[in-house]
Design brief:
heterodimer; A: mainly beta; seven-stranded mixed sheet; 50% strand; globular; B: mainly beta; five-stranded antiparallel sheet; 54% strand
Chain lengths: 115, 110
């Protein structure tokens, strides 16, 4: 089945220790997104790639970076995790249907714990 | 950032009851999406709406894209225990960014 895959599902890191979260997709979608979701809140968009074009949200901290080496894979790098970065990180993909019509499909998420 | 007004915030119902929730926006949208999220999992797409007035069903779920393009509702008929979760609406205008509601938490008493 075509899907969005995130690894690992749970990640524990130490305060200040760089961590990378991975996302892959078999949907062949050209747009990939990274969201941060904290408890009892809606997902918050960090950035997205439209093909190779990187689009950062204005309020995304510099501590968060992303790489998309090819269509199928996208990585979220947190350079120096703080306690406040503990959250669920969601990857999503979409393909343009034209005229602003779009459906985003989410992976299962990676729960990040910062000690 | 911009958010949608989603209501109710939470619901506690008996198994077999029907459920209705809605979202309103001050902006016009081209797409309305309804997601369900269970604890520790990512949001799962339930229904996607692309046209004003569109009424779409997915099993016991029915959703409508409001005619003004500023609102949408989701109905669940004959609820069952596995309907438990948080339901999010999300809307999209002319850019790629989804605007999210704050979620409706649904609990079903067997």
């Amino acid at each position: 089945d075509a899907m969005v895959i995130q690894n690992p599902r749970y990640q524990v890191t130490q305060f200040g220790k760089p961590v990378t979260l991975s996302c892959s997709q078999t949907l062949n979608h050209n747009v990939m997104y990274w969201y941060q979701q904290k408890s009892s809140q809606a997902p918050k968009l960090l950035f997205h790639y439209y093909d190779k074009d990187f689009n950062n949200e204005a309020d995304t901290p510099d501590n968060f970076q992303s790489r998309r080496p090819n269509t199928s894979f996208c990585f979220l790098d947190i350079r120096s995790p703080g306690l406040g970065d503990a959250a669920m990180y969601l990857c999503a993909t979409s393909t343009e249907r034209g005229a602003g019509k779009e459906t985003q499909y989410f992976g299962p998420g990676t729960r990040l714990l910062v000690l | 950032g911009q958010q949608l007004n989603q209501s109710p915030q939470s619901m506690f119902i008996q198994e077999g009851e029907d459920v209705s929730m809605n979202c309103t926006s001050s902006s016009i949208f081209n797409t309305w999406l309804w997601y369900k999220q269970e604890p520790g999992e990512g949001p799962v797409l339930l229904i996607a709406l692309y046209k004003a007035g569109e009424l779409t069903s997915n099993g016991r779920l029915t959703a409508q894209f409001g005619i003004t393009r500023k609102d949408s509702f989701l109905n669940i008929s004959a609820s069952i225990p596995s309907d438990v979760g948080i339901y999010f609406c999300a809307g999209r205008g002319n850019n790629r960014k989804l605007i999210w509601g704050l979620g409706t938490s649904l609990a079903v008493n067997p």
